[in-house]
Amino acid sequence: MELEELSVAEKAAMLSGGSEWDSRGNERAGIPSFVMSDGPHGVRRQLGAGDHLGLGASKPATCFPTAGTVANSWNPELAERMGEALGREAHDLDVNVLLGPGLNIKRNPLCGRNFEYYSEDPIVAGRMAAGLIRGIQSNGVAACPKHFAVNSQELRRQASNSVIDERTMREIYLTGFEIAVREAAPLTIMTSYNEINGVYAHENKHLLQDILRDEWGFDGMVVSDWGGSNSAVAAVKAGGSLEMPSPGFTSVRELTGAVAAGTLAEADLNKRAAEVAKVAAATRLTGVGRDDLLADDIAAAHHAVARRVAEESAVLLKNAAVGAGVDAPDASDASGTSGTSETKPSATSALPFTPGTRVAVIGDMAKTPRFQGSGSSKVNATRDENILDELAHAADRTGVTVAGYAQGYDRQGKADRALVEDAVALAGRDDVDAILAVVGLDERSESEGLDRSTMALPAAQNELVAALAAATRTTAAGKPLVVVLVAGSPVELPWFDDVSAILYVGLSGQAGASATVRALTGEINPSGHLAETWPMRYDDCPSAGWYPAIGRDAIYREGPFVGYRYYETAQVPVRFPFGYGLSYATFTYSDLTADETGVEFTVTNDSDVAGATVAQLYVSGRSRAVAGGPAASTVAGATGEAEAGAAVADVTATTDTNATNAGVLRPVRELKGFVKIELAAHETRTVRIDFDRYTFRHFDAEAGRWATESGIWTLAVGDNVEHLPLATPFAVAGDIDAAPADPALGHYLTGDVKHVTDAEMAALFGHEVVAPGRPTVFDVNDPISSWVDSRGFVARTVANTLIRREANVREKTGAPDLNTLFILNMPPRAMSKMTQGMVDSAMVDAIVTIGNGHTFRGLGGLIAGFLRNQSANKRTAKELNHD
Length: 883
Prior knowledge:
The protein has 883 residues and is an alpha/beta fold. The protein contains 27 helices and 26 strands. Strand 18 (587-595) and strand 19 (598-605) form a beta hairpin. The two termini are 19 Å apart.
């Protein structure tokens, strides 16, 4: 039987889930149900009924490093290898659709889910995601990139409206998805919970039809985030294929009713059903069964892949000389005025530990590891490691031994002076040559469902590091104090100047400890580079003044000035720039040339050890290329060494307003390509980075199309956004002439977004933007948390009780109460999507009546609605079963 021959009700039934993780198939048409499962860095195949928050038990699977860590490898081929292993495990666990990767832009470092996202830059996010998708889908399993789109905060995540200008949305927040779709052809994509400019993502025709399908050519299935569907009819019209999890039969009745009434074309229903059927057909799993996953050879091989990913993703942030004091110049002090990369290790550098070194290991996380975040992506790892044991296991081959261990701090952040004193005493022992402190964010800090409240590490850990630093300064030998930093997002480092070395390992997966030990002892050379900027302090962040939005509207007031685009344009000092990473090797960049299709340059490893660097291509647009810099002939000769560094600084750092306005508004420089290069000791290689459709374009919102400005642009190459030793002018023959930027943009013209006025924001958005006040009457889209302002005692009590319960659980267990957080952030409309048909839209209206203070009226409507809904569900089930 052909799909078109099915009844309207049967086709409508295919467009919503049959359970928490399963689609609805159709036996008459030979369309099987398929299984969807988290997650982006490990398969979370749940037992029993399952849940979408990571609360229930799941089958063992390899826990790979999280996306925020993998991105620091800057290696799409490595991501593809990880994807191959992920897809194999999904296949073996009978999972047809793996829900990942996450590639939302890291707008602000406090987003609780940043560890699941790649970068603040869409080129990095898109290329890394494309690699993972290709690997996953090589196993006959569908990847599902998420959350599409403009999803940047966990607070009110199901009831938030992202208000953003079209150009910023297209260039910053959608380009990563575009790259993933065009380069990796994912079979599915997941929409986000939020509205975008007032329209929910899963029913946003501009997003799903105009852009995703018509412009990018996506012909796959669009699935809602769990509970993220609003109107089934509007979704089908807009391009949304499948709503999850099971809403029962409410949506079936809504869709069939709309077709009967003529408000929904049956042709649209057919399109969406065909998209679901296509995924079912493309992911019919054959071959090995799920029991083979635990075979020793597969588990060991995938553990090795996880270790390799963790090794390439570790970022050496500091490596000072030992004996000269920790304040001595080190790699992080490089001026960026030569062609040599910012890596200046010496024979006396704190890392790597040399054979014979006796190390005091300090920190609870060294013994009880944290290697992933909390929430729906949490994996039941097949094994785990800890740094303390791995150092001991490696002693025979490295010659580095463990002199002792001290806990150092309370895991839950409680002040405990005795733990600090024990650690200081251990560090001061004569049989200790070096101190290794393992610190980081705890399990409560990074989770789906809530945003971080601060960029600071727990005070107890900062106290520990400060005490150890003070103790090492008093020792005659100048024992090096090395910090291993565990966190999925940037943190403030008040003790940065007082420690010898910092190795940032992120959330490094189940093999992260052995990878860390190999980096500390020099068995591998750290090659990670940061895929996001680390500000000095949170207040420096461009969106610090309005993040997270506590009301309905999350206004993206900063426009395109996200991450390094802001810090570079507004000239705000940072702790570590975008793209930054040190090495035990040193590299020289030279001989930059450009032709019509790309740039070529030479990279040399000047050291006696093999290593890898990440070469990065940045582009400064027409408005910056002429902005008060030297004449073109002067820049033309600047293709290496100090002259290039000075030229690119002159070209891009200007305050000449008239020159700045020579082209459209844009950041001072933007990443447009990168390549990771592995070089043997003293090896030289010619490297090429090609231009592509993303290199010179900008989105012309007024014309509704992509455009390229003609003129002299500047191309710069280096190993981070602040260290670009190579630069050259480049004549671009675009399709429009450069026109002056609108002077009404005011502070945007210099990136000073913290002082943007409402009038200037209106010029950017093309219309006035006004944030609504707090609601006095609640509707189906206001979250339960907003009921704290209800006039009704019952509604206020419900909201306040849930808030207190979540806080108490978090304090008591040291982990967030994900279920309560989900309820608090959930609008009533989601209840009809998350209860497998127990609640319908009429019952939701009754619940909202209770929220507005009419308790008894609402309860009456709820009871009556329940009885009507049960009867209707029975009738629909009978129709679908052809009884």
